[in-house]
Amino acid sequence: MVLVTGATGLLGRVIVLELVKRGEKVRACKRPDSDLSDVQKSYEYYTSNADYFFDLIEWVDLDFNQHQSLYTALKDITDVYHCAAKISFDPQDKDEVLETGIVCTRNLLRACRYMPVKKFLFVSSAATLRVNKNGLESQINGNHSVKTYSPYVISKYIAEKMVLSAYKKGLNAVIINPAMIIGIGNQKKNDSHLLEIFKTNRITFPGGTSCIDVRDVAKIAISLLEKNIFGERFSLSAENVPYKDLACQIRNIEGLKKPILFKKRILKVMQYFRPILKLVDGNARFLTDENIEFICDHQYHSNKKIKNTIPCSFYSLAESIRFYYGNYMIDKSE
Question: Residues 6 or more apart from 24 whose CB is under 8 A from it?
Answer without folding.
Answer: 1, 2
